[in-house]
Amino acid sequence: MKIKYLGTAAYEGVPALYCKCRVCTESFRTGGRALRSRSQALIDESLLIDYNADTVCHSLRYRIDWEKIGDCLITHSHSDHLCPADLEILSDPISHEHRTLHFYSAQDGYEKIAEQIALHKMQNRATVTLVRHGDLFYTSQKKYKILVLRANHALASTPVFYAIECGGKRLLYAHDTGVFPEEDYALLQNFGCFDLISLDCTGCLGIGWDWRDGHMSLKTNLEVMERLRREGIAGDKTIFVANHFSHNGGQTYDEMVPEMAKYGIVVAYDGLEIAF
Ligand SMILES: [Zn+2]
Ligand SMILES: [Zn+2]
Ligand SMILES: [Zn+2]
User: Is residue 76 in a domain?
Assistant: First the structure.
C-alpha cells in the first residue's frame, strides 16, 4: 500500500491566508515543506480521501490520473474536506466521458453530495453511499476493506475517520479528531494491527494547550499512541505520521521535525509518499 499526502494543512492553509503571525511569516520565507494546502490523501493512486477546494490544484501539482481513481472517502462536511460545489466538475459537459467516482460519507456530507448529484447532469459519473460509524464495507472494485470510526470532532459535520485494509496491509487515517472515543478501540482491535497510523496534529507540539477534543497535538498523539500500542492496535513496526497542521499550533515544519523525531513520528508535508 502507498499513501501520498496531497495536502497537509487545516482549513486556512499554512501560511494561513491573510495571516502575518510568526509561523506564517517564517513559513512564507522558507517555502518548501513549510507550505501546506488543505488536507487530502491518495492511496495507491486509486482511493482518494476527501474532496476539498484544493482538489483541482492537487490534480495539477501531482498530475493525478483520474481514470485510476474509483472511490473517495469523505471524513466530514467541513469545507477543508468537502467542497460540494466542485462535484459539478464531474458532470456533463464540464468534463467529458470518464469513469464513475464513488463517494462514501456520513450523514451531513452524504446529503450535500446527494444534492449536487441530483442537481447536475451526472450520467452516473458520481454516486454516494451513506456510511455510519461501525460500518465495515468494501470499495467499488472490492479492493479495499474499510472500517468507519467515530471521530471526536464538531458533531454537525458528522465526523468519521477510516481504517483501510488491502493486500494484508492496514492504514489508519485519523484526522479532524481529538483523542479517540472509547468505542473506537474495540473496533480497531478487531480490525487488526496497523502498518501506518496517520494522526491529527492540528495543534503541532501542543505547547500551552493539550488539544484534546476536536483536534490533537503531539501531547495527545503520544497518549493515543500509547493506548494503541497497549491494545495491540499498533506494534513495533507501525509507522506513525502526524498530519493536518494549523499555524495556531505555533510551530513551522522545521521546528516540529526534531521534536517529533524523538518519538519516531514522521511530520507530514505536501507531496510526502510512504509505501509500506
Ligand atoms: Zn480539517
Ligand atoms: Zn499565521
Ligand atoms: Zn473539521
Answer: yes
Residues 103-136 have pLDDT tens digits of 999 999 999 999 999 999 888 999 999 999 999 9
Residue 248 Cα to ligand 2 midpoint, Å, equals: 7
Residue 276 lies in a domain: no
Q: Are β-strands 2-7 and 40-43 bridged in parallel, bridged antiparallel, or unpaired?
A: antiparallel
Is 93 domain-assigned?
yes
Ligand index nearest the alpha carbon of residue 247: 2
- pLDDT tens by residue, 171-184: 999 999 999 999 99
Instruction: Tell how far the Cα of 50 is from the centroid of ligand 2, in angstroms.
Output: 24
> How much is the pLDDT for 49?
98
Cα atoms in the Cβ-side hemisphere of radius 13 Å centred on 165:
14
Q: How far is the CA of 9 from the centre of ligand 2 (A)?
A: 12
- From the CA of 108, which ligand is nearest? 3
Among the bound ligands, name the one nearest to the CA of residue 9. Answer: 1
Alpha carbon distance 261, 48 (integer Å): 28
Closest ligand to 23 CA?
2
Which of 269, 124, 152 is CA-nearest to residue 213?
152
Specify the number of domains making up the chain: 1
Domain ranges, residue 212: 7-270
Taking the CA of 153 as reference, the closest ligand is 3
Does any domain span residue 275? no
Task: Give the distance (Å) from ligand 3 centre to CA of residue 187.
Answer: 22
Task: Read off the CATH number of the domain in which 232 is found.
Answer: 3.60.15.10
